[in-house]
Amino acid sequence: MLDIGCGIGDMLRYRCGTVGVDVNPKAVALCQSQGLEVQLMQPDRLPFDDSEFDGAVLDNVLEHLERPEPLLAEVRRVLKAHGNFVVGVPGERGFRSDGDHKRHYPEAELARTIENAGFELARMFHQPFRSRLLDRYFRYYAIYGIFSRI
After folding, report:
1. Which pLDDT tens digit goes with each residue over 40-83?
2. pTM listed for this prediction
3. Are 78 and 1 a contacting pair, CB within 8 Å?
4. Do residues 111 and 101 lie in contact, with contact meaning Cβ atoms separated by under 8 Å?
5. Same domain, 19 and 73
6. Is the same domain home to 10 and 52?
């Protein structure tokens, strides 16, 4: 499993066999100092061979990119055929809470963006549960899509 934008390595600590990448050298150094398998990546370039991973996670990263297509093409390149790709983005309130957020992804836009990059939607879900009210007012509300590389 590949965790793209792994930050301080939360997922890496809890899921064996997960490799992380991040563009932030300080985050990478922190993770490495804790014995986690993390590599520094250049924007829109994953440092791995073609078809190297069975799955990838892009959690709270997509909304920071003005142009997601180059990174999504890289994800498709490093995933094996039919590999799983989980993408999470903040809801409306969470999007407005961070000045570094570039693009908002309501559910339909998230699906369209990832499908246009060569993935097929398997299912969408919301955290903690689907709610228009939480989407508007709860900062930590999130939308997730599970996709398969086609």
Report:
1. 999 999 999 999 999 999 999 999 999 999 999 999 999 999 99
2. 0.95
3. no
4. no
5. no
6. no
